[in-house]
Automatic annotation (TrEMBL):
Keywords: Hydrolase, Metal-binding, Plastid, Zinc. GO terms for molecular function: hydrolase activity, acting on carbon-nitrogen (but not peptide) bonds, in linear amides; metal ion binding. This is Creatininase. Gene3D superfamilies: Creatininase (3.40.50.10310). SUPFAM superfamilies: Creatininase. The lineage of its organism: Eukaryota, Sar, Rhizaria, Cercozoa, Imbricatea. GO terms for biological process: riboflavin biosynthetic process. The keyword Plastid applies. Its cofactor is Zn(2+).
Length: 268
């Protein structure tokens, strides 16, 4: 879709796009990090790219929304014990978001959506967004996470996978089986977080891996395979259902944003 991608546009076309009321740019973020012994290291990047492409394809051509190229390498220090993981520093990503956001704002764009598919950089991109917004008040900055927002996702996942399948588990493996089945290895032999040389220690009472009282865990603390969850029941049908919910959900949110006047004008 060259017409939706800024990198395929000339500077006069970008100038014209930026001054349109409600002009919006989406920047997809992924990661290059281990996803267990059965998924490729580009898994998060693949999800961000494919879901965003599907959403953009369904938006009417006259809508003022465009996208940037995928930022494939992200912030993944929790996975650095596993070969193949590439991670940028937090400082570099903060600086990168600020610089790109500043330049988009100077081109007249009113909104920047950080469309992130990697759970390990949710909080970092929220900080980057708040910092950018403070320095560019006229630019609405919306950091979002692929799996948070669209309704119905959790209802497709059984317990305990719904809350314990944090990485390369049922949801991610099923989605990859639907999108790129030839890139998925033998999932039947892996038992997720239980496949460790010694049983992992549970977090202290009152603490959790994620949630209200999280801790800064490393994947190697709790998994020998890199999987946190259980991928054994993954299937392409579930992946298709997840994909449709993700696309429908983000399409509705993008349309809602385009219909709005966000960001609000500053109170003088």
């Amino acid at each position: 879709m060259p017409g939706r991608r800024l990198e395929w546009m000339s500077w006069p076309e970008i100038q014209e796009a930026g001054v349109q009321p409600g002009s919006t740019v989406v920047w997809p973020f992924g990661a290059v990090e281990q996803h267990g012994p059965h998924l490729p290291v580009c898994t998060d990047a693949c999800f961000a790219e494919v879901v965003l492409d599907a959403v953009m394809a369904r938006i009417k051509p006259n809508r003022p929304i465009w996208r940037l190229p995928l930022q494939m390498i992200g912030f993944s220090p929790e996975h650095e014990a596993f070969p193949g993981t590439l991670s940028l520093s937090a400082e570099l990503i903060l600086n990168m978001v600020e610089q790109v956001g500043n330049q988009l704002s100077r081109s007249g764009f009113e909104r920047l959506i950080l469309f992130n598919a990697h759970g390990g950089q949710i909080s970092l991109l929220q900080v980057a967004a708040r910092q950018l917004r403070a320095r560019r008040p006229s630019l609405g900055v919306l950091p979002c996470f692929l799996w948070s927002g669209p309704e119905g996702i959790s209802s497709l996942l059984p317990e305990p996978e719904r809350y314990e399948g944090l990485h390369a588990g049922l949801a991610e493996t099923s989605l990859m089986l639907y999108l790129q089945a030839n890139q998925v290895g033998n999932i039947k032999q892996w038992d997720g977080v239980r496949d460790c040389p010694t049983p992992p220690l549970d977090p202290p009472n009152g603490w959790s891996l994620e949630g209200k009282v999280p801790n800064a865990w490393l994947t190697s603390d709790i998994s020998a395979t890199g999987v946190i969850g259980d991928s054994r029941q993954a299937n392409a049908l579930l992946g298709e259902q997840l994909f449709n919910l993700l696309v429908d959900g983000w399409l509705a949110r993008f349309e809602s944003l385009l219909d709005s006047s966000w960001p609000p004008r500053r109170i003088s």
